[in-house]
Amino acid sequence: MASSPAKTTEGATERFTNRADDYRLARPSYSTDAVDFVLSNEGLGASCTIADIGSGTGILSGQLLDNSDAVLRLYGVEPNASMRALAESAMSSEPRFCSVDGTSENTGLSDSSVDAITVAQAFHWFDFESSRTEYRRIGRPGARAAVIWNSRNEGRDEFHRDYEAFLRTWGVGYLEVHALWQVKHRLRELFASGYREERFGYAQRLDVTALRSRFNSSSYAPAAQTKSYTPAIAALDMLFERHQSSGFVDMHYHCECYVGVL
User: Fold this and answer.
1) Domain range holding 46?
2) In this predicted structure, what is the pLDDT of residue 31?
């Protein structure tokens, strides 16, 4: 039986209600090599049904569907209505995509209904124990899982170091969110018999408008109506001017991928 959606841990759902447009515009996709790694390892994507958990605006969902005709159906499970609506609009012509109002801990999907589960970028917001139980409930015997996220290369060069310093100055609760990313040690508990991992380099070219949107898409960016928003954006614009070349900066990421059997 399907279960009813529940609230995501620590109110993470509400954090992105007013950030969906910026998220869609400026969040990076995942490198082609990373998507190929996810689809090719452990049989993921071989004529299967996938649940993409915390699918947001559909960045990974769209890439999985675009890169594999073998994916029969993909459930985009997303609790935030604004984010979910953008994914539905982006994939309105994709019959294999099914949008679901659910959380990681309570997807609303039926028992043993999917062959594989993907989680991208939102993994640190989930309640781990409840999510693991839910994934094993909805997964068929031998179900695979893939966890993938982009991590900024914080120490790559002066631009990346200055951007990190900017976030530590102007990000609201940035250090607390940053600490949530320390989740790799929990992956061994998610996968039944270990996992394969790979890391791929990826770069995103941003003009000043896109850099603003990249910042505004973050859960820790000050809201536009708060008094710290205007000086934060002014500081960001100054940072851009210091580091831009021909009107752009390049933000570099490590795209981290973990694939195994649940």
Assistant:
1) 9-261
2) 93
**Total count of domains within the chain:** 1
Q: Which two tokens stand for residue 62?
A: 């769209």
CATH number at residue 163: 3.40.50.150
Cα distance from N-terminal residue to C-terminal residue, the chain:
20
Q: CA torsion 81→58→54→125, rounded to 10°? A: -90
Tell me how far apart the alpha carbons of residues 54 and 12 are, in angstroms, rounded to a whole number.
11
Nearest CA-CA partner of 251 in 179, 176, 201: 201
pLDDT digits (tens, 9 = 90+) for 57-84: 999 999 999 998 889 999 999 999 999 9
Is 96 inside any structural domain?
yes
* Averaged pLDDT of the chain: 89
Token pair 């018999």: residue: 193
160 falls within a domain: yes
**Which tens digits make up the pLDDT trace of 108-157?**
999 999 999 999 988 888 888 899 999 999 999 999 999 999 999 998 99
Longest pairwise C-alpha distance within the chain: 56
DSSP 8-state assignment for residue 7:
P
User: Cα–Cα distance between 133 and 131 in angstroms, integer?
Assistant: 5
Query: Of 213, 230, 125, 232, nearest to 172 (Cα)?
Result: 232
In terms of pTM, does the model score above 0.70? yes
Q: Helix %, strand %, coil % for the chain, to 5?
A: 40, 25, 35
pLDDT of residue 120: 93
